[in-house]
Specification:
The chain is an alpha/beta fold. Helix content is 36%, strand content 16%. The strands form two sheets. The protein has a seven-stranded parallel beta sheet with strand order 2-1-14-3-4-5-6, covered by helices on one side. A seven-stranded mixed beta sheet has the order 9-8-7-10-11-13-12, with helices on both faces. It is globular, with a radius of gyration of 20 Å.
Length: 340
């Protein structure tokens, strides 16, 4: 198996799969951040990053063709990256965001963006959507159920998470989870955490920073952890009485598996997170607008679903069997939100 990734996502995968001799790692640069900056600068950055993204897609396709010629994979599975497909090789895309929501001032160009997205997605043999087929009982709402999806007829495979629920003592009063990949909002978020933690009466406060090897100025009473994985991540989230997190889709799927409630605070400027958060009741906390994710309020069909069922569905769709010797798995760093 060949895994292609970049940055913190690649480091995380190396750590998770350490000791697996059959796994080979390759590095390829991630996409530019499409939603950064404030005010007019936000739109300037957005247009500039779109041009960079177009070039990166061409480089992805060239890289994929070269790698396919070298290792001759049986299939390609890519997570949220649109250039990793090749003629003659079954290619599957994991993507919940079938439709990209344009920033407010660019909404007149939404149809154009939809057509571009459709053109990118139709190049794959099948799109695997980590959500549920019913638009009334799903996690991503209009992101995964829209006119593009109606044309593509993707495979809705159920939520996907590596988290594991454990009935343990709730001894962490307040757990902050920093997701996303934009440095500006992340710095502001950590400053807000420091202020809220200083004012909060909780005894046990933990902040999972969402980065590797970076320091932040937090009160001494706050235990700070860098990017955590696997059983360590599960331990923190299972033990938390209250969770405050960014509204990334990966975090939402983890909350479902862990049967946890949370306050979701979307990253400024990120239309996807704002949409996902607004699907839940609004609350105010520490001068921030958040949204109350309640596990008990989810449809029974979602609460009854197991990730094992998702994996079985995926394996059935891609036709994976014991004869598969090699695959390309591309993990998009921007989707690898903490916890992951």
């Amino acid at each position: 198996m060949t895994i292609v990734s970049d940055g913190d996502a690649l480091a995380a995968l190396r750590r998770e799969l350490f000791g697996h001799e059959a796994v080979e790692f390759r590095s390829f640069p991630d996409y530019p951040p499409l939603q950064r900056g404030k005010g007019a600068a936000h739109y300037g950055f957005f247009l500039a990053d779109l041009l960079r993204l177009t070039r990166r897609l061409r480089l992805e396709r060239a890289f994929t063709n070269s790698l396919v010629a070298e290792i001759r994979p049986d299939l390609i599975v890519t997570d949220g990256r649109f250039g990793f497909h090749a003629p003659g090789v079954p290619s599957f895309l994991i993507c919940h965001q079938i439709r990209f929501i344009m920033p407010r001032l660019l909404r007149p160009f939404q149809l154009m963006a939809d057509l571009v997205q459709l053109n990118l997605l139709r190049r794959f043999d099948r799109v695997l959507v980590p959500d549920f087929a019913s638009a009334e009982a799903c996690l991503a709402g209009r992101l995964s159920h829209n006119w593009i999806a109606a044309l593509l007829k993707p495979a809705y495979v159920g939520h996907l998470s590596s988290a594991h629920f454990k009935p343990v003592e709730k001894n962490i009063d307040l757990l902050f989870i920093t997701g996303g990949f934009l440095k500006g909002p992340k710095a502001a978020w950590e400053a807000w955490i420091a202020r809220v933690a200083h004012e909060h009466e909780a005894r046990e406060i933990v902040s999972i920073a969402g980065s590797m090897g970076h320091e932040a100025a937090l009160p001494d009473r706050v235990k700070r952890q860098d990017f955590v994985l696997g059983t360590e991540r599960d331990d923190y989230m299972n033990r938390a009485r209250a969770i405050i997190a960014r509204a990334g889709y990966t975090t939402i799927m983890d909350l479902v598996v862990l049967r946890q409630d949370a306050i979701l605070i979307p990253t400024p400027g990120m239309t996807e997170q704002l949409y996902l958060a607004k699907r839940h009741p609004r609350v105010e906390i520490g001068g921030q607008t958040g949204y109350a994710f309640r596990y008990a309020a989810l449809p029974e069909a979602i609460r009854a679903w197991n990730v094992e069922d998702t994996l079985k569905t995926i394996l059935g769709v891609i036709g994976w069997d014991s004869h598969v010797d090699c695959a390309i798995l591309k993990c998009d760093e921007s989707k690898c939100e903490t916890p992951q």
